[in-house]
Amino acid sequence: MFDVIIPTWNNLAELKKCLHGFDEQSFREFRVLICVDGSTDGTLEYLKNTKYNFNFEILTHLENAHKGRDKTRNLSLEKISAKYILTFDSDVVPKSDLLQKHLDLLNKKDCISVGEIEYENCKENFWAFYLQTRGKQKYKEFSEMPGYYLNTQNAAFRSRYFIELKGQDNDLSDSYGGDDTILGYRIDEKYNIPAVFNKDAVGYSRMEKTLNEALKQMREFGAVNLKIIRWKYPNFTELFRYDRMESNKLRHRLFRLLLRKEIASVLLKSIHFLPIVMKIKVLHFLVFLSIYRGYKSGRY
What we know:
By secondary structure, the protein is α/β, with parallel strands linked by helices. Helix content is 42%, strand content 18%. It folds into two domains: 2-205, Spore Coat Polysaccharide Biosynthesis Protein SpsA, Chain A (Alpha-Beta Complex), CATH 3.90.550; 211-297, no CATH class. Strands 1, 2, 3, 4, 5, 6, 7, 8 and 9 form a nine-stranded mixed beta sheet that branches. The N and C termini lie far apart (42 Å).
């Protein structure tokens, strides 16, 4: 019923917890395709000498090369045989009923079932806190959303969509960002199906990335993949606010005057002391500023 696709790169300890979570699933009709992205931490040796109470297959690049998450997930394309796929990240631990909750929704509606990620340290980690307020979190449970809110950390949908689209877009670079968004956009555009926030399909994780590290990745996204998306998908303008980055309208020019390093520095120093509502607004501003700086300078 499900092929679970898990890319992994040098995070064996987290992968073990993830796979243990699938060993505890209440729904048992699944196979796991573990896509190893050139790991050098003993992942391959561990998998070759370990058994679980489910079938799994190990997929690698030629000569165990490291090629990035998207090309690694696409290793699964020739192996998928189940009706549905679940895309899942190796640093997430599935709740025991996760597959059942995805199946319950998919049996009712042809959609992208976008599951929940609960960060166990969102009270201590600013980036985890921010992610719990964005994207699908703006919608109520079981609400329909645009397809571009797909998040391959925890999402399930018909396998044929992934196969017919030839997986994730290989034209995007191996640098950070945009890959999940574009996959969801492509599914929605070709098959006209919504994403649905399936809050009951829960995976647990811890965010180890600091706010500064996350903002650097946002600059990387703006400098590289956002430009590729702008070139390849010119009609996709709903999410990235190109008007604020490119428009000559007075209000957009005035807004861009605020996008200065000095302002970012002040905001980063003061964010600890702000009330929650202001904290979210400041984080959103810092994310846009980082993307804009990368987009305009081409550097990160």
